[in-house]
Structure formats: C-alpha cells, structure tokens
Amino acid sequence: MALGIGCSSRPGKAGNNKTGSWRVFKPIFDHDKCTKCGMCKTICPEGCIEESEDDFFIPDETYCKGCGICAEECPSDAITMEQEEK
Amino acid sequence: MLEITEGSHAVAKAVKMSRPQVIAAYPITPQTHIVETLADMVANGELDAEYITVESEFSALSACIGASAAGSRTYSATTSQGLALMFEVCFNVSGMRLPIVMTIANRALGAPLSIWNDQQDSISLRDCGWIQFYAEDNQEATDLHYIAYKVAESVEVLLPAFVCFDGFILSHTYEPVDMLSQEDVDRYLPAYKPFQKLDSDDPISMGMYATPEYYLEFRYEHDQAMKRAKDVISKAGKEFGEMFGRDYSALVEGYRLEDADTAIVAMGSLCGTIKDSIDEMRLAGKKVGLLKIRCFRPFPAEEIRNALSHVKRVAVLDKNVSIGAKGAVAIEVRDALYGKTMPVLGYILGLGGRDVRISDIKNIISLAESGKGDQFYGLRTEVL
Amino acid sequence: MAENSCELFDSGHRACGGCGAALVSRLLLKATGKDVIIVSATGCMEVFSTPYPETAWKVPWIHSLFENNSAVASGIEAALKKQGRKEKVVAIGGDGSTFDIGMLCLSGAFERGHDFTYICYDNEAYMNTGIQRSGATPYDASTTTSPAGKCSKGNNRPKKDLPQILAAHGAPYVATASIAYPSDVVKKIEKALNTPGPCYVQIHAPCCTGWGFEGEKTLAIGKLAIETGLWVNFEMENGVVTRVKKVVRKPVESYLKEQKRFRHLFKPKINAEEIAKIQAIADKNAEKYGTDLKLKSKSGPVVP
Questions:
Q1: Can you give the three-state secondary structure of B28-46, one letter per residue?
Q2: pTM of the full predicted structure?
Q3: Interface of chain C against chain A, CB under 8 Å?
C-alpha cells in the first residue's frame, strides 16, 4: 500500500483498532427499565451505542471500553456494570 | 518587455502573474517592498487574491498551510528573523507536501541584529525539506518564481520552494528585467490543480502523526521527492528556455570554467561580481572560472563533481557560517568532491552586509593559489 | 441539528475510557454535520484520533502544529472564500494550545475577523504530555508542574479568563459550555457556526486521568463544577452576557473532594483557608454572572 502523501489518509480505518479489548467492566442493559430516552447513545465517548430496530440501545462490544458513563448517567438506572470474564 | 524596475517590484509582478489565490505575509526589512506591492495590486483590483495581513511570520506560513491544503495556490515572502520564526512551520509545510512558494530576501540573523544581506537565514533551513533556489540577479529572481511554482506543484515533486535573492543588493536595486506577459505566464504555468485538498465532498485527514512503524518511510519518500525534483527542475528550466529564451535547465552553471585552474563556487548576487573579477583576471592571464549554484536543494552533488573534476583547486565563497564548522556550501561541495584530490578551500565573507568587491575576489584567488583557506575573509583586524 | 443520526466520529479512537474530550469530538460533529473543515491543534484529541492511517474523522480534517490552528483556519477560510465554497471552518484545541501557546495566532485570527468557530476543549492542564499546568488550570489544582507539597498548595494562579479576552476582540459570539450538558454544547456550537465572524466556544471537558476520578464520573464532575459555581455556562453576544445557566449553589468542597488534584486540600487535614479562597472564586463568579437562582425565602418552602 502506498503511503498517503504528506501523512494523509481517507476515513474508515479507525475501526481497525478494536478498543473493546481494553474493557474490564461491561455494561449490561436492562430493557425492562429502559425508557428509550437515548441518553446513553448521546454521551458515549466512543459513539459505540447503537439503536436497534425496536428502539432499544445496544453497546458495540468491539469498541466499548467499559468506562461506565452510560451506567452512571442513565436516568432510569437501566444499565449496570459487571466485571467481564475473559 | 524590458523594464527598469526594482528587484522587489519585479518579483511582485512575477508573483502576481503566477496567479496566487491566497497571500499571507508579515512585513520585515528588506522584504517589505514585495508585500507592499502585492497589497497595492490587490487593493487596485490588478490581482484577484485573498491577502491575509497576519500578526506574525509564524502565522503567515501557517495561514499558507491552510490555504494550500484547501486547494489554493499560495504565496508568502520573508527573510531572516521572520524565517527563523517560521522554522517549525517550514518543516511542517514540506512534510505535508504542500507546494507553497516563498520569496526569501536574504538577510543576516541576529544577534547582533543586522538588517543587511547574507544568506545565513535560508542556509540555516537547508534541512527543512524545501527546494531552495538562489538568484544571481533580478531577471533570474523573477523567472525563478514561475519555475518554482511549476516544479513545486508537479505531482512527481509536491514540495514547497524558496526563491532566495539577496536582500537590498537585489531587492532594492533597479535593473533592467525582461518581464513576461500574463499570456506567456499562463502558457507556461497553468491554473493550479491540487493533488489533494480538504473538501467535504471527499474528506481526507491531512497532517496525521506517524508512529515509528511509518515515520522513517515518510521521511524517505520526502527525500525521494526532493531527488526527483532535480529532473523536474531541469525540464521546467529547459521548457522556460524554449519558450522565452532564458534556459534554466542547469542546477549549476559554469562561467569560463572549461579550462580553469581555479574554480570559485558561489551562490546569489556574488556571482555577478565574481564574473567581472574573472574577466579581469583572465585578461591578466589567470585561468579562473566560476561555478554558480542556482539550486541548493536538491543539492546537485553529481553536477558539481562533473563540473569541477578538471580544476586544480576550488574556492568556495560562503555568505553564511555553521559556527564551529565551516560555511555550509564549502562543506557540501567538499562532500560532492569526495575522493578527488584537489584542495577545496572555504571563505566566509560578506556577512551582515559587508561589501564584496572585485579586489576581494582577486585576493581570495591569491589566497587559494597559496593554499590558504577555511577562514573568514575581510576581517577588520583593527577592531578585534 | 444537522445530520444528527449520522456518526461522523469513528469508534476505535484511542482516548482513555471516559474521556471528556472524546465526547466533545462527537458533539462537535453532531453540530457541524459533514459540510465542515476541522483544524486540530496538537494535543490529546489529535493524538487519540489520528495515528496514521487510522483517522477517526469522517469530515475533512487537518493538523499542523500545536500553536497555529487559528492561523491555519484563517488560510482555509480565505481559500474557501476565494473558491466560492461554503464549508464551515472550525479550529479546535485543548486549553494548552488555546490559552497558552496558540494565543498569538488566536488573537490575530479574531482581530482580523475571519469567519470561523474556535472550540476549546478545556481539561485544565496539558494532559497529552502528562498533566502539566496551563493558563487554564484552576487555583490550587495539583499538576505535575504545579505539584502540591510542603511549600506548595498546587497551582498558585487563577484560571485565565479567555472568553472575556476574546469578547474584547469584538467576537460576535462567545460561549462556555460543559459536556455535562450535551445538548447545550451542540446548541452553542450551532449558534457559533451560524454567526458570521470569529466565534468562540469553550467546553469544560473533565479528564478522569488528569484530575483523578473514575471514568464513569466524567459528566457528574462536570455538573458539580457548574453547581458549585467554579464553572459558569454563559453566552456573550457582541460583548454582552445574554444567557447564563443558573444554579442553586453547592459548597465548592463537593466538587473538590471528588478529585485527586485537590486531595491535598483535604488530607492529611482539611485546609480551610485554601478552600475558603476557592469558595471566594466561586462566589465572585456567581456575582459576576448572576448564576444564583433567587430563592423565595419568605414565601414558603424552597424548590430549586
């Protein structure tokens, strides 16, 4: 692959870095408590919370670093952090 | 058309006809007449460009980065302290491979403060990855701007270029200059087509950082581009000659060098004085010639070696000094002649605006003939 | 909001878990949409988002140096004007590049009146190089170059008032915001983008690594900064404060004690004298901007 002139690059390669491997705690989403407000998606620093077809929110474990902001900020306490078995 | 004009005005006209779309510059002596003239041209509607009156040279070249990255042909001019303030930006421009052209009205660097000419400023930036041209007179200074843009923007090169001409000695001197017409310039230098640019329809990230896995390769490619520039400069200089009668295909140019015993090597306006000296010395039977370096980066080592292979001694005149070593040109010429046996003697002279006259050149030839060199020439020992 | 549903900032970037600045990147691009050119200063955000070739930016983006993003933005704006293009120009930098080393270029660009928006993600120290103090570091914060010790109570100077300095340049729109209030951040950036001329938005972006708190608390800490009066969210239009976030203030301790950078004010014993000085800063902020919610003390119970 030729180098991008002047250290330039087109978008699309950040995803090569699978930051999910950094995770120690994993967010567990309780859809019974979820009010579908979308706060978790708005504030996730990774931008890795997706909206599913039934309007619930699902973290992309490939990139979720397990920071826990979503759990901390969820107005309905619908997200809990659990230590991950790897 | 032949015009009697000040060097700075001639350069400004050449810049105007190169159709820069964005100009960013900060005033500094002796560059001011160039940027004032360009500002006048913009104010009068003769030049359709955005002119950014930045708050420092640092910002001048930084603004050029933005404009160039956004896809516009850009221009700046500076000298001395201003160029020193741009140090960091200069490396950035070339590493990002942005074809910015900048005029350097060569001037000494402080301390002590001096507004007068030498070439310490641009020579000190020889490692910054820009092409460096040095003009002997205002005709050359003018023509080199068209060539600089053509070479810099070539996809084989994509590197920025300094066009250096001696402050005051050339910038403030009236000389006859054959100015091209706008039609001529447009034929030689077509409208700018950026290789890549910041554009929301086709987004790219520019100026990313390189980890140790990549940095070495980026520097190698930068060096390769500079080496390719040699051929591109030759071609662009030849084409210029074919179109307008002044051939700039050679990166170095000999004067009465073919049968010379002693060769002088120099850059910039000094070459005019040297040529006159050579004519006088030749009349007195001394076989002296000149090798003028017009392009210092890329460094034409092979061309220098070929041009000087037959001489008995080489005297290199440096309007700069790498303190604690020698003049930069002497060091590099000696390197180009590695393995040859003739003495290569360096003379540091003309610093901070000290005049260099025909008699000085003759004295230097005498010193060279007696094997004395690697010294400051013309010291006023009475003040030491 | 432009293109709200489309993520223009990619996952896979290398920010610390719980990074405030990473959220700023996302919110910024939510506000700008795709028709923008971003000029990033050297710093955490630049480094975590663009190791070659893995850029997280799906919009045109350029990084040049630590201190020149405003000047680069000036050049881009001039080029776009010349080419008749309509993209918005945004320069972004941390507090180190904005308050300190980039001040010359920033002042020049604002004085010249370029049509661009400058975003400062303010995490109150040089985080990329390892938490050294900047002109934005608050009073008494312990950093690696203003460490608390026997002879030091941490950073001995108050935070530089950069919004006022830029307002004094004649900037038509200057605002402060906090990632603790994401929709307010987006709204203010949109307003800056749609106001012709040089606009400034300074966004409080708590840094869990540099300030010493757990990553999940990033927004909570930001909220406390506002609730204690140590950070004020306001908008200035043509030099006049037009909107302020009002709060029922909490004592500054509730903010300070959550962060390791202020731990020396509480351990080994409480330094009441220094805490009082910080309380005075908050009181002054509240008075200057009128952030205190007026409580109807005589007519029944208080409902904040």
A1: CCCCHHHHHHHHHHHHCCC
A2: 0.97
A3: 7, 9-15, 17-20, 22-23, 26, 49, 52-58, 179, 182-183, 214-220
